[in-house]
Amino acid sequence: MEKQENKYEGLYIIGYGLGGGFGGAINFEVIQVDNQEQADNFAWENACEEYESYAGMHGLRSVEDIMQEDEIEDEDEAYIVFEEERETWLDYSAVPYSKEYEKKISGNHYNNNYKEITD
């Protein structure tokens, strides 16, 4: 029996955003990576970037805010607190690409640069 090629192999739909009043994972995009772990890491990195774009606003503290408010003088120590706080806000996922999942999340911010493969 001949093995059929999975034309979606390596494609994942990642979702990312911030929890709470920010709405959760509302940004989705199709990426191509080697495995689930890489997809998970990519989704986490995007969620971190989302958080960092709001740091210092809307109740999300920046490293500078932490140093001032918590009276921490060492920037490295403040960054550890920043990372801990950031993790509590992150919302992200990585799901192997499927047409069914694409339909489910398509009402959100969605980008698929691999349409030639997925159509």
Low-confidence runs: 1-5
General shape: elongated
Number of separate structural domains:
1
Could you tell me how far the N terminus lies from the C terminus, measured between alpha carbons in angstroms? 26 Å
Mean pLDDT: 93
Number of helices: 5
- Residue share in β-strands: 15-25%
Write down how many β-strands occur, each being a DSSP E stretch of 2 or more residues. 4
- Main sheet specs: 4 strands, mixed
Question: Could you say which structural class the secondary elements and strand pairing correspond to?
Answer: alpha+beta
* SSE series: EEHHHEHEH
Describe the structure.
This protein is α+β, with helices and mostly antiparallel strands. It has one domain. 44% of the residues lie in helices and 23% in strands. The chain contains five helices and four strands; from the N terminus they run E-E-H-H-H-E-H-E-H. It has helices at residues 36-54, 63-69, 75-89, 99-105, 115-118; strands at 11-18, 24-32, 90-96, 109-111. It has a four-stranded mixed sheet with strand order 3-1-2-4, sandwiched between helices. Helix 2 (63-69) crosses helix 3. The protein is elongated, with a radius of gyration of 18 Å. The model is unreliable at 1-5 (pLDDT under 50).
Main features:
alpha+beta; 4-stranded mixed β-sheet
Note the topology:
Layout: E1 11-18, E2 24-32, H1 36-54, H2 63-69, H3 75-89, E3 90-96, H4 99-105, E4 109-111, H5 115-118
Parallel strand pairs: 2-4
Antiparallel strand pairs: 1-2, 1-3
Helix pairs in contact: 2-3
